[in-house]
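Interim report, section 4.2 (structural modelling).
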Amino acid sequence: MSNGNQTLGVQRISLRRRIANHLVTYSALGASVLVIVPLVAIFGYLLMKGIGSINWAFLTQIPKPVGEPGGGMGNAIVGSAIILLIASCFGIPLGIGAGIFLAEFGRNKFGNIVRFTSDVLNGVPSIVVGIAVYGLVVVTQKHFSALAGGVALGIMMIPTVARSTEEMLLMVPRTIREAAWGLGVPQWRTTLSVTLKTASAGVITGTMLAFARAAGETAPLLFTAFGNQFWNWNVNQPTAALPLQVFVYAISPFDEWHRQAWAGALVLIILIVAAVTAVRIVTSRGMYRGAA
Amino acid sequence: MSVLAIVVLIAWQLIVNSSLSLKQFGLKFFYGSSWDPVSGDFGALPFVYGTIVSSILALVIAVPLSVAAAVFITEMCPGWLKTPLSFLMELLAAIPSVIYGLWAIFILAPILRQFVEPFLSKFFGWTGLFSGPTYGIGMLAAGVILAIMIVPIISSITREVMTAVPSQQREAVLALGATRWEMIRIAVLRNSRTGIIGGIILGLGRALGETMAVTMVIGNRPEIAKSLFAPGYTMASVMANEFTEATDNLYLSAIVEIGLALFILTLIVNIIAQALVWASTRGMPARAQA
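Predicted structure of the assembly:
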């Protein structure tokens, strides 16, 4: 009796349904593979084409004129560092500030407006931010500068930092805050040294992600930092940046520059992947700690 | 608070700096198709067309792939594969667009020129979409590279929304004798519909504003061509290419006006997307409580 029921149960799934099931399973598998292929291809080509051109000279020298072999992107690496430093000084405090505001005092209509605007800002194309900063900083200063590039990248960082700070702060249990208040700690002190400190690992994660994203941005730098073929330490002068240099070299007609573009891209991606992976390790460790 | 100020400041800057061309051309700016800096005649239609076509092309390629990949990761793949797979997807999202562009110029475009485009024109040439000389660089290359760039976005949001579907829903459908595919269709996809659409629109917003990779492969010719092999131009790439070359004020303000239009376009797209994603992820726990 029970045997008969089982066979009946198996037979009830018609051939058509079984085929559909398998078809979907394999096409989903195929799609996942297809999505991963470009990633592997990009990294593979970057390593293959870039590794040969990376050497000490590439990392420390400035570009040579077309036709002369050698030269490097040292000035672009330093320029990127300067621009990112300015962007971080400007974007991270503002972002964290906005995040604190949203988490601690943002449970009202005004908070919702700010939250919504920050999501909107996140979706604004980077090139549009570049144009706006051009109008704001470059036109008033009358020339391109690292400062303008930093401001543009800083603006790009704010929404990411703000939203991840807010999320992390909201995960801090209310009891911890209440414990601080119970000890007579004023609200601002509670927020800074208790809530923010508890959430610091998560906040750092969000900040690093924003930093990595800003490090690879090119479009807003086109008409803010502008690029420079020489060493420059003055934040008021046009400054080279790594992604910008890669772009310029990639669309140039010279083979030597193409090689350098691959190498520059490889350096850039190594920096970014290192940042993202570090974040990944820190967060997974943080989770274990939380569980224990 | 500063966030609010910054958005207002951006919008204000764009409006002020484009006022000259706003006054000069009015609405004609968006349906005029001549772009002639020398004689001072500006119409943005080819760029609007290029932006929209390349983005739609990207969606057509990316949506089925990313939803299928999300289904695989959340519903099918063994547990040990889940983390590495989603990590790889995240990595794909972290690659700077200039590197996508570099790869597209030197690797993707030659592949398209040698293998994909001759194949398409041989079998689908009659549609008119795949005709003409095969450069490799053009609308198709832009669409493909955009698709690769937005897959991680759509896929990660789809994954999030699918994970939010309560597992009782899945168990209930399975208990009724459904196969795995039927369970996914009835329990998972139907429940996360809104969120998935939101994710797709968010991806669209990203594709519309993407600059560097597209500029590098689309060919940069302000022309409206029916064939996807032909070079085109997008709103973002015209800004990237010509902003520093713009010599007179009218030219400059015409380019800023394109920026303003792009700003408004992405604003609308993002607002719709946010509303949909919020509705589906925030509504979920509330319903579970009730």
